[in-house]
Amino acid sequence: MIxxxxxxxxxxxxxxxxxxNQQVAGLADAALxxxxxxxxxxxxxxxxxxxxxxxxxxxxRGIDLTVFSPRAxxxxxxxxxxxxxxxxxxxxxxxxxxxxxxxPDNFIGAAMLPQSPGADPxxxxxxxxxxxxxxxxxxxxxxxxxxxxxxxxxPLSDRHWYPIYERMAELDIPAMIHVSTSCNACFHTTGAHYxxxxxxxxxxxxxxxxxxxxxxxxxxxxxxxxAVPYHWGRFRGLxxxxxxxxxxxxxxxxxxxxxxxxxxxxxxxxxxxxxxKNVLFASEMIGAVRGIDPQTGHAYDDTRxxxxxxxxxxxxxxxxxxxxxARRVYPRLAAALDARQQGAAR
Amino acid sequence: MIxxxxxxxxxxxxxxxxxxNQQVAGLADAALxxxxxxxxxxxxxxxxxxxxxxxxxxxxRGIDLTVFSPRAxxxxxxxxxxxxxxxxxxxxxxxxxxxxxxxPDNFIGAAMLPQSPGADPxxxxxxxxxxxxxxxxxxxxxxxxxxxxxxxxxPLSDRHWYPIYERMAELDIPAMIHVSTSCNACFHTTGAHYxxxxxxxxxxxxxxxxxxxxxxxxxxxxxxxxAVPYHWGRFRGLxxxxxxxxxxxxxxxxxxxxxxxxxxxxxxxxxxxxxxKNVLFASEMIGAVRGIDPQTGHAYDDTRxxxxxxxxxxxxxxxxxxxxxARRVYPRLAAALDARQQGAAR
Lengths: 346, 346
Description:
Chains A, B: Residues 3-331 form the Amidohydrolase-related domain. Chains A, B: This is Amidohydrolase. Chains A, B: One of its GO terms (molecular function) is carboxy-lyase activity. The structure is a homodimer of 346-residue chains. Chain A is α/β, with parallel strands linked by helices and 346 residues long. Chain A has a single domain, classed as Metal-dependent hydrolases (TIM Barrel), CATH 3.20.20.140. Chain A has 15 helices and nine strands. In chain A, the strands form two sheets. Chain A has a six-stranded parallel β-sheet with strand order 4-5-6-7-8-9. A three-stranded parallel β-sheet of chain A has the order 1-2-3. In chain A, helix 7 (162-171) links the parallel strand 5 (140-142) and strand 6. In chain A, helix 2 packs across helix 5, helix 12 (264-273) crosses helix 13 (303-309) and helix 14 packs across helix 15 (331-345). Chain A is globular. Chains A and B meet through helix 8, helix 10 and helix 12 of A and helix 8, helix 10 and helix 12 of B.
């Protein structure tokens, strides 16, 4: 079985974007604010948006199941205030839940949170609870920089974030650390801000003792961990100078990297440097990089090929990366799969 | 010959730091501001600080010459105003010039600029001219974020920076793009801010047509290019979607990566993915990562070993990386070496 733990609903029907534009217009003129009910998307439209896109590619590439969350760049937590984000997150999560309901064998939800710059993360808990307890979601995306490239929130190791971590422990779900659109002209969203956030989050964990306070906390750092595996020696050396334990001990019980690295040498490095138990298969397909690589003739985001070809991996390790690690890091995903299997066996 | 293009004076006598602390105290109480003349460091003290440190390691590792600039984290352009930085940069550059004067075969200067948040980069030109024309420096360090982690300056592709580039063209010198200390709690200086800045700068170049305006402009992106080579497929794909030329054509006449990557797999990836003509030997020794790697028994920053062992490099390519590229990218360095050779032959 192949589980892709990093998929976003990047192909949602245009009505969603139109609704959001209207919501943004409402920030300047409250009379324009749309009601959540004004968003009308039929199951037929959802099916069209998925079958020709994510599902078609999953079938083509042999991917069975995708952990599916709202479009990362559309979260745009910097827009408006908590209420703006609460309404927007709810709509976006609902659409992912409907997709998972239409294709229960192929998609399972991960929650976008209604974060907002300066807001207490506790304001996110009701939506997180709703997503997990009512919609059956198995993870969340946590944005370490709701300001969108101005980095005005405290580091992830700060107590500011602890209410989220406490709820994660209760619910037994992991968080993917994923920023959204950059509204800082210095940072290109997918070419700089995303990768920088990955590196930044890792280093925030390295310099802290966060995982002593939360031994079961699990962070998935996407995009192959940003710059981290490429500079693994640097990070090992920095930890050593800070008298931290070896990274394996200090961080690798709690931090996992996905495989959204879009060329063979990058995946070869990732799988050579990072223990297989810490690598989770992902492609973020129909995401940041949608073209065909002229050097290979295949899609940049067809990362399964790279894992298959990675020279240092054993078949056992490939199975960990494709399936077993996801079951371990996302226990609610494992439980859902087991329940289905039992249902099918009955 | 082996040229290390990335060395900072991290071991300057303590009197320098004491002077700086006094200068910072003077920002709160002008009466405390020290005179530049108050900094007294003898040649003997400079020799001690260099011979037991950089020079000892260069001899041990067989490195002939280091391009030597003031300590990057001490630039701290976010402190004070333009005048603060003008005085501070001058003192720091003078020390590097004195080291180069004491050890002309082993060190050659690169300039720190007196940048300041919000200041017109033109204010840096007198110090840059002085360093190149009077002190014999062959390059400069350009800080794309003088705010120290708040990223309040325009991207490097903005006309804001053009006066620097015009002067670089006139002087025929390259710039290393190097930030300084982060005063944003989100970013660890050497573990996040440096690497993020490298990735950010590369992407600012990718999305722009800066090198059409300045065809001879040369940027050295340190720390192995941040996350860039590891994500080379991502960057190729992003450029493709933006209808930019192939990266080789679009950027690799103007952008170079150093080899400050502190483990073998990282250097193997760098030298596999990036053409040898774009890779410059560097170690940033006695810098961010000073320990011994228990996995190898050698210093993390002893990068020469990694280049020697990189499996895809030919001897010709190694010679490019160790020497020939530096001569090409830093023509004033080449001219200085040629002049010395002619002097020796006479």
